[in-house]
Specification:
It is built from 21 helices and 29 strands. β17 and β18 form a beta hairpin.
C-alpha cells in the first residue's frame, strides 16, 4: 500500500445459501467505493471453502495485493437461520435455584426440547444475598453429560445481582468436562430468570457453529497473507472482535440483517424507509428512522423465541428463495405454502450431484401416479461426527443410511415414524432435505440460471401433477406452477412488510389485517367496504433475488421499492462501514436503610453513602465499557455514562430504591498498520 492509498476493507457475509465478499475503500466520496464484489456457495460442511471462493474472486477482480487489506469484517445469518430452523448442538441446561415449573415460562421448555436439564439448590435474592448452594447433583451427572452434549448453559436465580453460584458451576463443569460453558450473567444484566435461561441455552447451542465459522475465516485469511483484524457484526449492527463473538454467539443473531440495514442506509442515503432483505432461508423486515435502525427494547425474537439480546427491531420470517414449497392439506383448491424450512433447491443439488438427482426425478416421473415423497432427497450436511452425539438408536440407524450423495426419500423411508426421525436429524443440523423451492421456479422460467435448470424443471413437473381436492392436477404445466410459486412469494413478502409496519404502529392482529389487505389488492375484490393502504416511506429491497421477487411489490404496499445497485452484497458492505459499540451496566440497590449495594460485573460491594455508591458504579461501568470496547476491537472508544434513579417520596422525604448505571462505548474498529 502506497503512502497515498487509503486502507482497503474486506467485507464477508456468510448466508444460508451464498457467501458474499466485497472489497471497499474509503476513497470516492462519502459513500466510499466498492472496488469488487463476488459470491460463492456457502459450504456448511467446511465454511472455509465458500469463504475462500468469494474472497479469492474479489481479490482477482480487484487485482489487489492481500497485504493491502487492513480490516476484515463479517456478518452472518447462520445463527439466525439455526434458530429459525430449530437447529444447534445438544446442550445441558443447569438451573440453580429454580424449580421445574419455571421451565413452563417464556418458551423455555419448548426451546429445551429433549436436551437434558439439571436443577441445583442455590441462587440469590434481589439484593444478592445467597441461598445455600449444592452442586453435588450436577457433579454426579457430569460424566454422562460430558459424553452426550456439546456444551453447557448455566442460569442461577438472580445471577444478575450476584453471579457467584453461576461462576462456581461454570468452573466445576470446565474442570470435569473441558466443554464450553455459557453463564447467563455474561449475556444479560436484565431480570427474568427463565428468559435469561432461554437466551443462555440458545447461546450454548450456537457456540460450535460460530466457532467453526470464525476458525474457517481466520484460517483462510492466514493462508492468503491477510494480517488484518477480524470483526463480526452483532445483532444491533455494531461490530465486535471475532474472539468476542466466539464467546457470545447469541449476539450474532440477526447479524446479517443488521448489517444489511447499515448497508441499506449507506447505499441509498435514505433516513426513513422499510428495509426488506430476502435471502435463501429468511426474509428480514425492519424500519429505518432518522438514519438509524429501530432497536427492540424487549430483546430480539427469532424462531418464535423472545431472547434478551439487544438487536434491531427486526421481524424474521421463514420465507426465502430456498423455502420449502408445499401444498395446503385438505382443500378443494389448495394454496401454495412456502417455508419456514429451508431446502436445498433441486437445481443446486442437480448442479452439485448431477445424475444422482436427475435420474431419480426421471424415475419418479415415469410412475403412473404422483407419490407423497416425489422430488425429495436427504443428504448429510457434513458437520463433524462429534456433533451427532446423543442420537437415539432409530436416529443413528437412519443417519448411517444417509450419505454425502442425495438419496431419494421414497427409497430411504418406509414408515411415518421414520419421517419423524428424519425431521429430528434435520433439526439437529445433521441432514439437509433437497426439494422444490422458489429458486427452482425461477430456473424453470429462465429468471435465474446459475444452477441446473433441468433438475428444477423435473421437480416442477413432479409438483405440478399433484392432485387437488377434486383429483385434478394443481397446474397444467411446469411453467404455470413456477409462476404461481413466484407470485405467492411476492404476495407473502408484501404481507410481511405490512405486518411489520402494523406491528411497529402497535396494532393488534397485524398479520390478519395485512393478509386481508393484500388479498383485496391482489384479487381486485371490490367488496362493500372500500379501503386502501400505503406505507409512509419506501421499501429498500435487499438480497440477490430482490430484483426478481420485489418487482411486483409497489401496488401491494402503496409506495415505491428501491433496489440499490449493490443490493446483492448489502450485508457484506454493511459489515465494513459500521462501528464498534458495547455497553456495561451496574445497579445500586438498598437492601436496608443506610446500606447501598453495588452490583457491577462479577463483584458485589456495600457502601453506607449513596453518593459514594453511585460514584463507584459510574467508575466501574466506565472501566468495564472501556475494557469491553478494547476486547471488541477498538482503541478509540468514546464513552457516555447515564444514570437512572428509582425513588419514592414518603411524607415529603426522598427514599432511594435503586439506580441503574449504563456506559456505552463506541468507535471505529482498529485496523492493521
Amino acid at each position: 500500500m502506497t503512502a497515498k492509498q487509503s486502507p482497503l476493507f474486506l467485507g464477508i457475509d456468510t448466508g444460508g445459501t451464498y457467501t458474499d465478499a466485497v472489497l471497499w475503500s474509503e476513497e470516492g466520496g462519502p459513500k466510499g467505493k466498492v472496488l469488487a464484489k463476488a459470491k460463492a456457495l456457502t459450504t456448511r460442511h467446511d465454511l472455509a471453502v465458500g469463504i475462500s471462493g468469494a474472497v479469492d474472486a474479489v481479490l482477482e477482480k480487484a487485482g489487489t495485493d492481500p497485504a493491502a487489506i487492513k480490516l476484515v469484517s463479517m456478518s452472518t445469518t447462520l445463527a439466525t437461520n439455526a434458530l429459525v430452523e430449530g437447529q444447534g448442538g445438544r446442550v445441558a441446561l443447569i438451573m440453580i435455584g429454580f424449580s421445574e415449573a419455571d421451565l413452563a415460562r417464556d418458551g423455555l421448555k419448548t426451546a429445551l426440547g429433549t436436551d437434558p436439564v439439571v436443577f441445583c439448590p442455590g441462587g440469590h435474592d434481589v439484593h444478592g444475598n445467597a441461598a445455600k448452594l449444592d452442586l453435588s447433583g450436577l457433579e454426579a451427572a457430569l460424566p454422562e453429560l460430558g459424553r452426550s452434549v456439546s456444551g453447557f448453559a448455566v442460569c442461577a436465580y438472580f445471577a444478575t445481582r450476584n453471579p457467584a453460584h453461576e461462576l462456581a458451576a461454570r468452573d466445576l463443569i470446565r474442570e470435569k468436562t473441558g466443554l464450553p460453558v455459557t453463564a447467563s450473567h455474561e449475556l444479560s444484566a436484565k431480570l427474568g430468570g427463565p428468559r435469561r435461561a432461554l437466551t443462555t441455552l440458545l447461546n450454548a447451542r450456537l457456540i460450535s457453529m460460530i466457532d467453526r465459522l470464525v476458525a474457517a475465516t481466520e484460517g483462510f485469511l492466514a493462508k492468503r497473507g491477510i494480517a488484518a483484524p477480524l470483526m463480526v457484526v452483532r445483532g444491533d449492527g455494531a461490530l465486535v472482535s471475532a474472539a468476542f463473538a466466539r464467546q457470545r454467539p447469541i449476539e450474532t443473531i440477526l447479524s446479517g440483517p443488521a448489517a444489511s440495514l447499515v448497508g441499506a442506509r449507506h447505499m441509498t442515503g435514505l433516513d426513513d424507509a422499510m428495509v426488506s432483505d430476502i435471502g435463501g432461508t429468511t426474509t428480514d423486515v425492519a424500519v429505518l428512522d432518522g438514519g438509524r435502525p429501530r432497536l427492540d427494547p424487549e430483546g430480539a425474537t427469532v424462531g418464535g423465541f423472545r431472547t434478551m439480546v439487544e438487536a434491531v427491531a427486526m421481524r424474521t420470517f421463514g420465507l426465502g428463495g430456498d423455502s420449502e414449497v408445499a401444498l395446503e392439506d385438505g382443500a378443494l383448491t389448495p394454496k401454495i405454502l412456502l417455508g419456514p424450512r429451508r431446502l436445498v433447491p433441486l437445481a443446486l443439488a442437480g448442479m452439485v450431484h448431477g445424475e444422482a438427482v436427475t435420474v431419480e426425478l426421471e424415475r419418479q416421473l415415469r410412475a403412473p401416479n404422483p407419490g407423497r415423497m416425489d422430488g425429495r432427497f436427504a443428504v448429510r450436511t457434513g458437520v463433524p461426527d462429534r456433533l451427532a452425539a446423543g442420537l437415539t438408536a432409530p436416529e443413528a440407524k437412519l443417519y448411517e443410511a444417509i450419505g454425502a450423495t442425495p438419496l431419494a426419500l421414497d427409497r430411504l423411508l418406509t414408515s411415518n415414524a421414520q419421517n419423524a426421525t428424519l425431521n429430528r436429524l434435520v433439526a439437529r443440523g445433521l441432514v439437509h432435505i433437497c426439494g422444490f423451492t422458489p429458486s427452482d421456479a425461477a430456473h424453470v422460467l429462465g429468471r435465474q440460471a446459475n444452477w441446473d435448470p433441468a433438475a428444477a424443471r423435473l421437480g416442477a413437473e413432479l409438483f405440478a401433477r399433484r392432485r387437488d381436492g377434486r383429483g385434478q392436477a394443481i397446474a397444467a404445466t411446469p411453467e404455470a406452477l413456477a409462476e404461481r410459486v413466484l407470485t405467492t412469494l411476492t404476495r407473502w413478502s408484501a404481507e410481511y412488510i405490512l405486518e411489520t409496519a402494523f406491528a411497529e404502529d402497535g396494532l393488534d392482529g397485524a398479520a390478519t389485517v395485512a393478509h386481508a389487505l393484500v388479498q383485496r389488492a391482489v384479487d381486485a375484490h371490490p367488496g362493500i367496504a372500500r379501503f386502501t393502504v400505503a406505507l409512509d416511506r419506501p421499501v429498500i429491497g435487499l438480497g440477490a433475488s430482490a430484483p426478481l421477487h420485489y418487482a411486483g411489490l409497489p401496488p401491494l404496499i402503496g409506495n415505491g421499492c428501491i433496489v440499490p445497485e449493490d443490493t446483492d452484497v448489502a450485508n457484506a458492505l454493511g459489515a465494513v462501514v459500521g462501528q464498534v459499540r458495547v455497553s456495561a451496566e451496574a445497579r445500586v440497590s438498598q437492601p436496608r436503610e443506610g446500606l447501598f449495594r453495588l452490583a457491577s460485573g462479577q463483584t458485589v460491594r456495600d457502601f453506607t453513602d449513596e453518593a459514594k455508591a453511585i460514584a463507584a458504579a459510574e467508575t466501574d461501568v466506565r472501566a468495564l465499557a472501556a475494557q469491553r470496547a478494547k476486547d471488541a476491537g477498538t482503541d478509540s472508544a468514546e464513552i457516555d455514562v447515564a444514570t437512572e434513579f428509582k425513588v419514592s417520596t414518603i411524607e415529603g422525604q426522598r427514599m432511594f430504591i435503586e439506580a441503574h448505571v449504563v456506559a456505552v462505548a463506541s468507535g471505529r474498529p482498529r485496523i492493521a498498520v
